């Protein structure tokens, strides 16, 4: 499924003309079993707590971006649960695959009246591009030639629109030695393409289970915490973090600015087994 992206752009009318409002949720790690836990934390419980907080946003997002590792076991049951839950939120939802996902299974189940397989979204003065950086059977990421060609074509076709590029794996080092070994392996190729297109204003991803934001040559490089377990920033080896689950809310302005904030679920106590040294 990873290269089945030759489809028409999906168009959305934002609620306001001067700003596009988005929410990003990532690394949900949902299991087929409703009692499934990651490092001792029930991932459905934390996912639903995150979504409940998102539903209370003062300004309703125009769209929801789900940026990979949506399931831990890539099971039909997990994706069916996610599809039904996203539908209940009544938000236009767009998804991409992470290293724990299976793109073909996602395509089969993550589609209904409000969950869409589209990878190119036109909304106001922006286009949002959803790339598949997953590599079957591997933890690290790589953007195939097809994905890179899709990105280049989309940017060339709409030079007048600001662009937000989304993927799962981190395309820059984040300061965690173990995580930086399993990021996007052709990050330099992506950076070179972006450098040729001034309309790219942001790159958004998950995978690292922690908050990250850096401005490089006018582009915002942004990562969002997991909706379940977090990873310790700056760690050399695998280490779970103590921060609460969360999501990111973004405002994309007509002049190309991106403002965003991470909201964490600090009012609910989640139990994590810190003795587990991997996932």
TrEMBL record:
Residues 21-210 form the Calcineurin-like phosphoesterase domain. Its EC number is 3.1.4.53. It comes from the Bacteria. InterPro entries: Calcineurin-like_PHP, CNP_phosphodiesterase-III, GpdQ/CpdA-like, Metallo-depent_PP-like. Keywords: Hydrolase, Iron, Metal-binding. GO terms for molecular function: 3',5'-cyclic-AMP phosphodiesterase activity. It is an enzyme of class 3 (hydrolase). Signal peptide: none annotated. The keyword Protein biosynthesis does not apply. NCBIfam families: PRK11148.1 (NF008359). Belongs to the cyclic nucleotide phosphodiesterase class-III family. This is 3',5'-cyclic-AMP phosphodiesterase. It comes from Aliikangiella maris.
